[in-house]
Amino acid sequence: MSSTDFERQPFGDAMTIEADAAAWVRRRYLWDWGHQDQADLDAWLGESFEHQVAFIRLEAAWNRAERLVALRSLGRQIFGWPRRPLAGILLKVAATLAVISVLGIATAYYISVPRSTTYATTVGGHETLSLNDGSRIELNTDSTIRVSNRGDVRQVWLDKGEAYFDVVHDAKRPFTVFAGDGRIVDLGTKFVARRETGLLRVAVVQGSARVDDLGGQSQQSFAILTPGDVAIATATSVSVTRKSTSELDAGLGWRRGVLVFNNTPLGEVASEFNRYNRVKLVVSDPAAAMIQIGGTFAIDNVAGFTRIAQQLLKLHVKEHDGEILISR
């Protein structure tokens, strides 16, 4: 599923704020404006003082342009165009300034704001995208990304879920993935990025990548990753651990349609199955949640896993209100 829309870049720089403010002014004065639109604008203005300044300035320019256009119309009525040459010259200048003002806002919007295409998968879904530069992106279950359509940049926004990136390196056009306050810059890479609540997890399979903290709150603001490195970026830190090739391969089992566990607590196993299936596993017993599991299971084979839990692990399994409850 995909759709094309306009999105602002997450840099927070002056150009982007200017473009956003221009978009809001254009939307307010040229579109049908309702209560929800005003609420959305108020939320955007509340994000920063810079947003307020940019909006007030551009709205004033727009209103000034409208007054200048009205002045020309009034001059025709009062002075009897073109009987007053000086007035006519002044009014022509005013009209020109109005056009420049309006075009300036429109140009800032259309030039500064990139076009992007959104791709999303449902629960249990898996989609592979081939980009124009030869790079490939695989989307895991319940994931959403946006891909910039601008030819001069290679930018992707991971808004939700997990994706595997096989990037064709281009030093002149770095491949950049934004995920919340985190940013991943390709240095010739195959890597997987998973966005969870409050953190970004990045594992490099081949090549190298740089993970940056754009929030500016962490003590370590970036990390250079090589094969086997796994970075976890939060609002307060960027930490790196090492994993073996077999561990990385197990974590990428979803690309083959399987989940691979190696002495994994049952509670974590249930959470992984729940990412891919609408029927949820609930381990209600803390002792049962700590039981370690090993093996390879088809992503959608919840029934097969519960049979193993019941027959081999001797756990109690019960279906209730669309959930499968597991306990000792």
Please tell me about this protein's structure:
Helices cover 37% and strands 35% of the residues. The strands form three sheets. Strands 1, 2, 3, 4, 5, 6, 7, 8, 9, 10, 11 and 12 form a twelve-stranded mixed β-sheet that branches. The radius of gyration is 27 Å and the shape is globular. It has helices spanning 14-30, 35-45, 49-80, 85-112, 245-251, 266-276, 286-289, 302-311, and strands spanning 2-6, 115-120, 127-130, 136-139, 144-148, 154-166, 175-179, 182-196, 199-213, 222-225, 229-233, 238-242, 258-265, 280-283, 292-298, 316-320, 323-327. It is an alpha+beta fold and 328 residues long. The protein folds into three domains: 7-112, no CATH class; 115-246, Sandwich (Jelly Rolls), CATH 2.60.120; 257-327, 3-Layer(bab) Sandwich (Phage tail protein beta-alpha-beta fold). The protein is built from eight helices and 17 strands.
Q: What is the chain-wise order of helices and strands?
A: EHHHHEEEEEEEEEEEHEHEHEHEE
The amount of helix comes to: 25-40%
The overall number of domains is: 3
Q: Identify the CATH architecture of the largest domain.
A: Sandwich
* CATH overall fold name of the largest domain: Jelly Rolls
Indicate the structural class. alpha+beta
Largest sheet: 12 strands, mixed
Strand content: 35-45%
Distance between the termini: 42 Å
Total DSSP helices? 8
Radius of gyration: 27 Å
Level-1 CATH class name of the largest domain: Mainly Beta
Query: What is the number of beta strands?
Result: 17
Uncertain segments of ≥5 residues (pLDDT<50)? 1-12, 81-100, 109-114
- On the 0-100 scale, what is the average pLDDT? 79
Shape: globular
